[in-house]
Specification:
heterodimer, A: mainly alpha, Rna Polymerase Sigma Factor, Chain: A, Arc Repressor Mutant, subunit A, 2 domains, B: mainly alpha, about 75% helix, globular
Chain lengths: ~180, ~55
């Protein structure tokens, strides 16, 4: 039977991918995973008897990701995202505020959630978001933070925070429309 | 008083992040009741939230 350390180590590639998706910086992602693995090995007793090693490790990793975001916002490591996306957003609507290309219902979205390929496309769409926008969005939607916490952690005003989240959602919708649901 | 689609999408998004004030909430409900495109958009946003939560 494999040692606990070996089983933990096997999860490293998965955890790196997970952290990269949220941090958008490969060095920061490696740091977060390294800290999580060290904590996991030191806290093996905390795992005792739980069924899923990956879930347990991901839980530890989430805390490390938040720590790193906190540190980074103190050091102001992330430059503000370019405002170009605002213009991109404007292109979705005409000058009277109506849709240039009106959305119609996505066919059988529940079925997409059953497909691995769908999540690969979603990840690709997330990777196209500017870094700060992606962080804010993942903190909100994946990690379940409230907006005021997100603003604090990434160092922006609440209004800016809502704008980031709005932009992320609009961009992801466009991306999924084009690359998954098509027209 | 009436919302444009652009304003409606912004309120739909904000509604996922905070409780809308009664005036915005009402204006948005009214817009969604008469605008199929924005109603479809709202369902897409709800779907996006479910999808991101399932991402592993």
């Amino acid at each position: 039977m494999k040692s606990f350390a070996a089983r933990v180590e096997e999860e490293r590639p998965y955890l790196i991918r997970y952290a990269s998706l949220q941090l958008r910086d490969s060095h920061a992602a490696e740091d977060a995973v390294q800290e999580a693995l060290v904590a996991a090995l030191a806290g093996e007793a905390g795992f005792a008897g739980r069924s899923n090693l990956r879930t347990w490790l991901t839980g530890i990793l989430k805390h490390k990701i938040v720590d790193i975001i906190r540190r980074a916002s103190r050091e102001n490591a992330l430059a503000p995202d370019p405002l170009a996306e605002v213009a991109e957003l404007d292109a979705l609507f005409d000058e009277t505020g109506h849709w240039a290309d009106a959305p119609s219902a996505w066919p059988d979205p529940g079925n997409s959630l059953e497909q691995k390929q769908f999540f690969a496309v979603l990840e690709e769409c997330l990777a196209r978001l500017p870094a700060k926008t992606a962080r804010a969005f993942m903190m909100r939607e994946h990690m379940g933070f409230e907006t005021d916490e997100i603003c604090q952690e990434i160092g922006v005003t609440p209004t800016h925070c809502w704008v980031l989240l709005y932009r992320a959602r609009m961009a992801l919708r466009e991306c999924l429309q084009t690359n998954w649901f098509r027209k | 008083m009436k919302l444009t689609c652009k304003e409606a999408t912004r309120l739909v998004s904000q509604g996922l992040d905070r409780k809308l004030g009664p005036r915005d909430w009402l204006r948005l409900r009214f817009h969604l009741a008469i605008c199929d495109a924005c109603a479809a958009f709202t369902r897409q946003m709800e779907f996006l939230r479910r999808a991101i939560q399932r991402l592993s």
